Amino acid sequence: MPQATDDQAGRAATALPLAAPRRRGRALAVFLSALAVLVATVGLAGPARAYEWNVLCTGYDACATAGYSNSGYKDHSSTSYWSQSTGHNCTNYVAYRLVTNGLPNKRPAQLSGNAYNWGTAFASQTDDAPAVGSVAWWGQSFSSTGHIAYVEKVVSADQILVSEDNWGGDFRWRSVTRSGGLWPAGFIHLKDMGPKVAAPASYPTYRPVAPTRIVDTRSSLGATGPLAAGSDTSILVSGKAGLPRTAIGAVVVNVTVVRPQAEGYLLAYPSGTSPAASSTVNFDPGAVVANQAVVGVGSDGRIRIKVSQATDVLVDVVGWYPSFGNLTTTTPTRILDTRYGQGAPAGRLQPGSRIDLTVTGSSVVPASGVDSVLLNVTAARPTKDGNLAVWPTGAAEPNSSSLNFSSGSSISGLVVAKVGSNGRVSIRTSAATDVIADVVGWYPSGADYLGLTPARLLDTRNGTGVAASGPVAAGGVVRLQVTGRGGVPSTGVKAVVLTLVVTGPQQPGHLIAYPSGSSRPTTSNLNFVAGQTIANTAVVTPSSDGYVDIYVYQSTQVVADVQGYLAS
User: Fold this and answer.
1) Residue 470, number of CB atoms within 10 A of its CB
2) SS3 category, 199
3) Which of 214, 417, 503, 519 has the fewest beta carbons closer than 10 A?
4) How large is the average pLDDT for residues 109-136?
5) What residue ranges are annotated as transmembrane (predicted)?
6) Burial class (CB in 10 A: 0-12, 13-18, 19+), 564
7) 3-state secondary structure (DSSP) of residue 487
8) 63-119, pLDDT tens digit by residue?
9) By three-state DSSP, how is residue 535 classified?
10) Are 493 and 546 in contact (CB under 8 A)?
């Protein structure tokens, strides 16, 4: 049974600007040999290129000529180390290097033959900080058997040099950068020969992408629908919509339910985990409802979508977080449910009243060092139309809403809430309703996300943020300044997190938020029906001068509140 495939080697070649599409056999060998000669001739041993998987040399002899050692493996490749297959094989090569460094030549009991197992087998010794002598591990990003390499040099927190030997391929050295998209899923520390070098906590990690639809069950894009009641569907996100094929920690998606057959809910959660007693979107029969979600990505590069009732589903990707980043995602975990007295006394929250909810110190959020938490907040069975506001406990109550709801309908929304005094956030309602809150992630202090007390940037009803009050016309665009306002700085902003609200539309329609001056995406942030007041969270990249454009398909009043921003 092969221990690792050479798929990684082939993909390395395709990342180079001059490479043709990958082909196996002689053509690939000729190309790689030519590349090795080129490397030796032009001296690629110097600073690494900006692109990912930069092959520095290929082959024992060519690498030696270029100054890249195989540390004697050429003469010992016929010997099995840690009971791995001999010859060109990533696991046997790495085991040889570890044995050479001083570990016994006896395979650890928890380790299987295939490379995909290594990171999970040594979970307590695996993190995102490279060190010379550590094992770079890619899990199953490129093949079912996985891949590993030996870290030869840590150039910086953002760049490493590795050596590897590939099943069915050849020995090589490569340079890998964090920003290139193929950074290892983790580094295994079994016999380090140098100190760890980790990115600082403030390392900017959010990666916005052009909003891209990856699932539309109406047209069988990504999945065929309608999804059946009770179904649980696997959705591939890695390699889609401009996302890399590995080391994705979480994906930011807009999930839309289209014309469900009955009242129910949808849950988006990480592949490889068990679905929680939670919901991402709540819906009524025949409705079109959207909610933004931050979902952890499984080791197989997938998320899962579970629906309680038959419905069509859309999934639009708007951004992602690397697995080495400073956002920690969790399986959705309920910390508040007033229906059953969890996190607060049982009973509906009454109009004008509030809950000070403790969010830190739980099983999924640490007791200290937390800037903000990601909550999926649900208003369940409200008695009247109204709204919920969420803000850091101890700060002044904002004149803004985090979630808008209609009488009798349950609705959910993502809230990125800054943590206030004693690790709490405050929740206020304008109408009687049960309130549910599920933690889906958190940002540490010093991260590139900075939570704010929500502040209103736009309200077309009274002219806030626009030249004149009044509904935005059908097909109209509001150009809204988001930097230098509401606590957002004037410069150094990668994205803003907004609560977008429409109220009083005359016809069914949708809203799209995007960088000012850029092409309008074909995906929507918010869908609405006539007379509805509805909100959704959006992570939007501003233009270079600090503006976002908000487009509405049908005439409506529009409100926008800022929750926080991501520093560049």
Assistant:
1) 12
2) coil
3) 519
4) 87
5) 27-48
6) buried
7) coil
8) 999 999 999 999 999 999 999 999 999 999 999 999 999 999 999 988 877 888 888
9) strand
10) yes
Tokens of 470: 């009044």
Length of the chain: 568
- Closest by CA position to 149, among listed 96, 72, 79: 96
107: left (phi over 0), alpha (psi -120 to 50) or beta: beta
403: which 2 tokens?
Answer: 């979630």
Cβ proximity of 462 and 512 under 8 Å: no
Whole-angstrom distance, CA of residue 433 vs CA of residue 418: 23
Q: What is the pLDDT of residues 508-546, one digit of tens each?
A: 999 999 999 999 988 888 888 898 888 888 889 999 999
> Does the pTM exceed 0.85?
no
Per-residue confidence (pLDDT) for residue 324, from 0 to 100 = 64
Contact 441, 332 (CB under 8 A): no
Question: How far separated are the first and last CA of the chain, in Å rounded?
Answer: 46
Task: Give me the phi and psi of 93, to 5 degrees please.
Answer: -65, -50
336 DSSP β-pair partners? 437
Residue type, 538: A
Rounded to an integer, what distance in angstroms lies between the CA atom of residue 101 and that of residue 84?
Answer: 17
* Cα-based distances in Å from 67 to 4, 9, 16: 26, 20, 21
